[in-house]
Amino acid sequence: MGSNIILLSKQIPAYVSAIFKEHIKPAFVYHNLEHTSRVVERAVEIAAYYHLSETDRSILLAAAWFHDMGQLFTTPENHERQSVIMMEDFLVGHDVEQSIIENISGCIRATKIPHQPNTLLQEILCDADTYNLGTEEFLITDEQLKEEWRLLGIGVSAEWNKITLEFLKRHCFFTTYCKSKLQKGKQVNIDILSKRIESENNHKTL
Q1: For the CA atoms of 123, 129, 133, 139, what is the dihedral angle to 10 degrees?
Q2: What is the maximum span of the chain, computed from C-alpha positions, in angstroms?
Q3: Is the pLDDT score of 117 beyond 60?
Q4: pTM of the model
Q5: Which residues contact 30 (CB under 8 A, 6 or more apart)?
Q6: b/e sequence 88-108, b meaning 16+ C-beta within 10 Å
C-alpha cells in the first residue's frame, strides 16, 4: 500500500506548480507558489527529524503541495475544502488508494485555523505552514498577508497589529521539533509587535 503515491513524488509538484502558474493572481502576494514551495521545504525538514516511512513522507508532501491550491478558486475561508477536492480529482485519476487520499485530506483540512491536528502528519503540516511565525521572516510575511487582504478586498482593520498579536499568542506549535526550534523566535516576534502597538498608542496620546 502507498506505492502509487510514492511514484507520484515528481508529478505532484509539477502539476501543482503548473496550476499556480496558469492561474497566477497578482493579489496573492503571500499565498502563492513560493509560499507552497516553502511549506514543502519545511515539511521535509520536520519529517526528517521523525524518520517517517516513505509512504508517510509522500502523504505529507502531497498534502503540503495541495494545501493552498484552493486559494486560487474560492474564498480564503473555504480554500481547504477546495484544495481537498482538487487533490482528490488528481489522485483518483492516478489510482491512488482511498485510504491514502483520506490521509492527505486529513492533513490539508488540519491546516484550517484554528488548528486541531489529530495525527503526527497533520501536526507536521500545521507547523510547516506556520513555521514563519517563529522566524525573522514573519515580519515580512505579515506585511505580505496584509497587502494580500487589501488587494482581495478583505477588510484590513486599523487594529491589524493587535489582531496579529492575538493570533500569535493563541497559536501553538505541535511537534516537539518546532517547539524546540521556533518557540523562542515566536516570542521575539510577539515582543516586537507588543512594542509596536505600545508605540502606536503613545503616538495617539500625543
Answers
A1: 180
A2: 67
A3: yes
A4: 0.93
A5: 141, 144, 145, 147, 148
A6: bebbeeeebeeebbebbbbbb
